[in-house]
Amino acid sequence: MIRIGANPIGWSNDDMPELGGHIPLEQCLTEAKSVGFEGMELGNKFPRDAALLRPILAAHDLDLVSGWYSTFLIERSPEEELTAARAHIDLLKAMGCAVLIAAECTRTVHGTRGAPLSTRPVMTDAEWDRFNAGLTRFAELVAAEGLTLVYHHHMGTVVQTEAEIDRMMAGTGPAVKLLLDTGHATWGGADPAALARRYRDRIAHIHAKDVRPAVKAESEKGDWSFLESVVAGVYTVPGDGCVDYVSVLREVPDYAGWIVIEAEQDPEKAIPIVYAKLGYDNLVRFIAEAGLKR
């Protein structure tokens, strides 16, 4: 069964808190539910105590989908990573989540507005070996906790390009699943439909965001940072950019799980509820056109 969720980054940005910093959590949840979303991923305004978070989401009849976790497996062992992730894992388990979203953030530049994407980190061969082995072991430890690790390839990090996604997938064990992010794949130079076809058996979570080609081209020409590009509008909701969602979804005919709209924009330029509804309605239509069942 496919369920449609949202990430609150469309209302309030985690990497750049001043974007949407004035928008209360109550507004975000009320608007998300009114649009039709069934669940939400974590954001910086969510309490990280299940006893506090559960009644807040229940009041809006929303489930917790999951939440981002920054790994540093180039620098620390899987066992150290598990210790660092303990509170996050316990929250996800208490809230009934199925997946843990992980992204390697050693030396990442995606949260630094003054750091051009050209300065992002690139792993050495030795670091690749350490990272892939560590990610596999960490995923196995997470699985023992009852959660599936889904890896989030992301602009500005060590796993950004198609070649890097392929190297990670080839070098990790079956406990590591892929979070297919249509926006990061497209901006990173990959065809998300091709990735979906190649890894359909290991895709366990999907982030749906679209890309505005003109802003992408301007960002690349000017060597902008990730956050500068976001503010300029490189990302938008499904159906408002260049991603062919029907083609992507047709490559995962047996997919069951969450498809989460995660389209960070400046809420002063892109009114959150307007874009949330646009993205939701488009995604529902794309899912139906692709022949997937909800």
TrEMBL record:
Protein name, as recorded: Myo-inosose-2 dehydratase
Gene designation: iolE
Domain named Xylose isomerase-like TIM barrel is located at: 30-268
Q: Which GO terms describe its molecular function?
A: myo-inosose-2 dehydratase activity
Organism annotation? Segnochrobactrum spirostomi
Would the keyword Glycosyltransferase turn up in this protein's UniProt record? no
Where in the sequence is the signal peptide annotated?
Answer: none
Q: Which residues cross the membrane?
A: none
Q: Which InterPro entries match?
A: IolE/MocC, IolE/XylAMocC-like, Xyl_isomerase-like_sf, Xyl_isomerase-like_TIM-brl
* E.C. code: 4.2.1.44
| Entry keyword set | Lyase
Keyword Protein transport included in the entry's annotation: no
